[in-house]
Amino acid sequence: MSEVEAALRELWPSVTDDALRALLPHDLDSLRDFYPRLQQYVHAAPRKSEGTIDPAAIVRGDILSMGPGSVIEAGAVIHESCRLILGPNSRVRAGSLLRDEVVAGAGCLIGSHCDVARSVLLDGAALGHSIVFNDSIAGAQSLLSAFIGAANTHLTPGKEVSIRTATGSVATGRKYLGALLGDGVRIGSTASLSPGTIVMPGLTIPSGAILLGIIDASRREQLMHDFFERWGPRP
After folding, report:
1. Measuring CA to CA, how many Å separate 163 from each of 31, 64, 67, 118, 205?
2. How far apart are CA 70 and CA 152, in angstroms?
3. Phi then psi for 80, rounded to 5 degrees?
């Protein structure tokens, strides 16, 4: 088993639903074909409309399911390409743009002025404001605070995204791949996530960090050391 596959199998222990568990990538094959399976997952979802859409929201896409207590605020944009599943008590705030398939579980937040596409937010995940989150997965109870970009492709057009490991890099077979964040991950404002970043569960990442490859506890400790080396002693 590769280092990437070992990491994938540890990211989302909170998931108990069989269909959702089957959707989430657990090896390189399921990571490579994640988007087609996401499309199938959304297509198979039963239609439900138990939430609230503000009349001033701009809805051009297809809202397949809104759970009770869910809200789409005035000024939110559901693009014509979007097919949305919004879980109970989840909210899409003003100014956000949702495109292609988006799945948000229970108690999720997509904050103001976020750009979300082809992504999954597990229960309790929160995107603060001004977050770019494409081709990505946010674990349960994770938080991206503000002004964070999860890059999903290389500057070189058509280049395959690889995931950096301690011993080299692993090809993903994908030209577009954002961030894979484990349950309980918390990322400070203005962080930059390179394509194919993986953050292991429960880690807190300091503001302004630049992330590349698999971020485990030891790499997180180095990030914290670098942060306080620059900004002052740890409290």
Report:
1. 11, 33, 35, 19, 19
2. 28
3. -60, -25
Q: Strands 161-165, 168-174: parallel, antiparallel or unpaired by DSSP?
A: antiparallel
Separation between Cα atoms, residue 50 and residue 159, nearest integer Å? 42
Please name the amino acid found at residue 14.
S
What region, left, alpha or beta, does residue 156 occupy, with left being phi > 0 and alpha being psi -120 to 50 degrees? beta
**Could you give all domains of the chain from N- to C-terminal order, each with its CATH number?**
3-231 (2.160.10.10)
SS3 breakdown of the chain: % helix, strand, coil, rounded to 5? 20, 35, 45
Per-residue model confidence (pLDDT) at position 129: 95
Where helices occur in 162-201 by DSSP H, the ranges are none
CB 117 within 8 A of CB 103: no
Which phi and psi (to 5°) does residue 209 adopt? Answer: -70, 150
Residues of the chain with pLDDT under 50: none
Confirm if 213 and 165 have CB atoms less than 8 A apart: yes
User: What whole-number distance in Å separates Cα of residue 93 and Cα of residue 87?
Assistant: 14
pTM of the full structure: 0.95
Res 231: pLDDT: 77
Phi, psi of 160 (to 5 degrees): -70, 140
127-128-131 Cα angle (round to 5): 65
State the CB neighbour count (10 A cutoff) for residue 186: 17
